[in-house]
Amino acid sequence: MKKIIKAFSILLVLNAWFLPQLKAQEVITSKFSSDAWKVEASKSEFTTIEGKECLYLENGSAHLDGSDFKMGIIEYEVMFQPGRKFAGIQFRIQDAGNHEEFYMRAHQSGNPDATQYTPVYNGMAGWQLYYGEGYSTACSYNFGTWIQVKLIVTEKSMDVYVDDMSQPLLQVHDLKRTPESGMIGFWSLLGGAWYARLSYQSMDSPPPLTQTLKKRIPPEGTISDWEVSSAFNAKDLAPFYALDDFKGMDQLIWQTLPVEYSGTVNLAQISPVTQTTNTVLVKTTIHSKLNQILKMDFGYSDDAILYVNGKVLYSGQRRFLSRDYRYLGTIGYFDAAYLPLKEGENEVVFAITGGGGGWGIKAKLETLEGITMARTSSHF
């Protein structure tokens, strides 16, 4: 009896908090008509299916004019047919190349990467950097029927519900971009999808997520003190085996980018990837108490050249489909180099070239014995 009374009391407290929050802001329901949306797509049509006003969108995007959303609840329905295609929603849109994004991969129905959350910086989505728990999960789609989707978005987290509104399909514990109000929109790629029944409700205090995640700590030895240069053309660096020969070094502008709990630095924050701005230098300094060989595990996307004290030690490529037709090029600690460290200061520099699907770097040292750095994972 005491357990029942306690459970009932908790329920009353939750209701007392939860219901006023839901009523705090108006629910805005979108029209699906040309005067409400800004559409840029190879093919689009405002139509009615099964009595629902909807938008068919193929290879492009559509932004809801006047929408403004930072935190709260977004609900919509989407429908697509089988085949290779991507269909999703964008929110907190700052401009065409900067927003948060959740989408579905129709051709991966039932597979672990059927869904995807990723931030988009300067037009670069980061699915090669963000995969697995907290970013993507399996979902089996009912093709040719309306799929109900609900997002509950807090300042830095998100629960995603697909059809089953009783429990989230995907829990995103770390929305990557700085939380800013922005527009809401849809997009599709490599095929078409229909979107209907979009509504959103902005909240200063959204409902609590179903599960909170303890703060994650990067592995011991993770390098978190990276300086990143401005972007330049990879061809300017390609002929040289020593950094001293790179004539553009004096023109580079340097800044420090935050390292995520995974150890990854998302380099797309620096610049759009173009033919002339596709490469950055990422450097750190390691102080060694003695001459030694030290193993460093690392991962990158998409191309990398590693220099130690100005000399080339490694080069490699991890582009999408560059190794075989199934190769994704996802980032991880899949490579290693043995650093020839001298006593004193040692400069470690990566030249990282971006292509598509993510632009990033991560690295960790096998041991910190005899090593001093400005910051490592122990400072998170």
Total strand segments: 23
- Structural class call reads mainly beta
Q: What is the subunit arrangement here?
A: single chain
Roughly how many Å apart are the termini? 45 Å
Average pLDDT figure = 90
CATH class of the largest domain: Mainly Beta
Calculate Rg over CA atoms: 23 Å
> Any low-confidence stretches, pLDDT <50, length ≥5?
1-23, 376-380
Number of domains: 2
What percentage of the residues does DSSP assign to strands (E)? 35-45%
Instruction: Report the total helices.
Output: 1
Helix and strand succession?
HEEEEEEEEEEEEEEEEEEEEEEE
Textual characterization of the structure:
The protein is mainly beta. The chain contains one helix and 23 strands. The chain has one helix spanning 2-23; strands spanning 27-29, 37-49, 52-64, 72-79, 86-95, 98-105, 115-121, 124-125, 147-153, 158-162, 170-172, 183-202, 227-229, 254-256, 265-266, 279-288, 292-301, 303-308, 311-317, 335-341, 344-353, 360-365, 371-372. The strands form three sheets. Strands 1, 2, 3, 4, 5, 6, 7, 8, 9, 10, 11 and 12 form a twelve-stranded antiparallel β-sheet that branches. Strands 13, 14, 16, 18, 19, 21 and 23 form a seven-stranded antiparallel β-sheet that branches. A four-stranded antiparallel β-sheet has the order 15-22-17-20, with no helix packed on it. Strand 5 and strand 6 form a beta hairpin. The longest helix has 22 residues, at 2-23.
Blueprint (SSEs and pairs):
Blueprint lengths: L1 H22 L3 E3 L7 E13 L2 E13 L7 E8 L6 E10 L2 E8 L9 E7 L2 E2 L21 E7 L4 E5 L7 E3 L10 E20 L24 E3 L24 E3 L8 E2 L12 E10 L3 E10 L1 E6 L2 E7 L17 E7 L2 E10 L6 E6 L5 E2 L8
Antiparallel strand pairs: 1-12, 2-3, 3-12, 4-9, 4-12, 5-6, 5-12, 6-7, 7-8, 9-10, 10-11, 13-14, 13-16, 15-22, 16-21, 16-23, 17-20, 17-22, 18-19, 18-21
